[in-house]
TrEMBL record:
Gene this chain is encoded by: rplF
UniProt keyword list: Ribonucleoprotein, Ribosomal protein, RNA-binding, rRNA-binding
Name of the protein described by the UniProt record: Large ribosomal subunit protein uL6
Record family assignment: Belongs to the universal ribosomal protein uL6 family.
Stored InterPro entries: Ribosomal_uL6-like, Ribosomal_uL6-like_a/b-dom_sf, Ribosomal_uL6_a/b-dom, Ribosomal_uL6_bac-type, Ribosomal_uL6_CS
HAMAP family found in the cross-reference section: Ribosomal_uL6_B
UniProt xrefs under Gene3D superfamilies: Ribosomal protein L6, alpha-beta domain
Purpose of the protein: This protein binds to the 23S rRNA, and is important in its secondary structure. It is located near the subunit interface in the base of the L7/L12 stalk, and near the tRNA binding site of the peptidyltransferase center.
Subunit structure: Part of the 50S ribosomal subunit.
Large ribosomal subunit protein uL6 alpha-beta domain location: 11-82, 91-164
Domain of life: Bacteria
Length: 177
């Protein structure tokens, strides 16, 4: 039995939620998110609580039960509070800046990398070596952070590259004489 799925998702004040069949729509101060849930689970809205229940006792329904409950919880938290992911840039001459609707990255290549910022996502560079990605959709924020990180992954010898703020880079020893 899912320990995550058996708890309801609480809808906070200021967030409106609509459930119609398998489709769920959540609207708050940070925007609106919609999702169509799998046919193995059934969402219901009762007293500002969203319950996600499995349709039957099949293995697939039990696997998706907790997954979809967590997805709905992330939607509610996203439109109410929002999510933020931070990246750090290490390396001589490596820097980032937001210019209009694009993120300009200088990562030691012969050219600058221009990353277009998607709709509904906010990217802020407090310092030239720090990038903060924020928005309501947790999956999209993670995807964008992974794409930006993939332009120059951190290397294990000097630690140069783009890394997540809480990521630990395991360092290797260089050549010995």
């Amino acid at each position: 039995m899912s320990r995550v799925g058996k708890h309801p998702v609480e809808v906070p004040q200021g967030v409106t939620c609509q459930v119609s069949g398998q489709e769920i729509s959540v609207k708050g101060k940070n925007g609106e998110l919609k999702a169509i849930l799998s046919k193995e689970v059934l969402p219901t809205l009762e007293d500002n609580m969203i319950w996600v229940k499995p349709v039957d006792e099949s293995k697939q329904a039990r696997m998706l039960w907790g997954t979809w409950r967590r997805q709905v919880d992330n939607m509610v938290k996203g439109v109410h509070e929002g999510f933020t992911l931070r990246l750090e840039i290490n390396g001589v001459g490596y820097r980032a800046a937001v210019e209009g609707n694009t993120l300009k990255l200088q990562l030691g290549y012969s050219h600058d990398i221009l990353y277009p910022i998607p709709q509904g996502i906010k990217i802020v560079c407090d310092k030239p070596t720090s990038v903060a990605i924020s928005g309501a959709d947790r999956q999209l924020i993670g995807q964008i952070a992974a794409e930006i990180r993939s332009y120059r992954k951190p290397e294990p010898y000097k630690g140069k590259g783009i890394k997540y703020e809480d990521e630990k880079i395991y360092r290797k020893e260089g050549k010995k004489k």
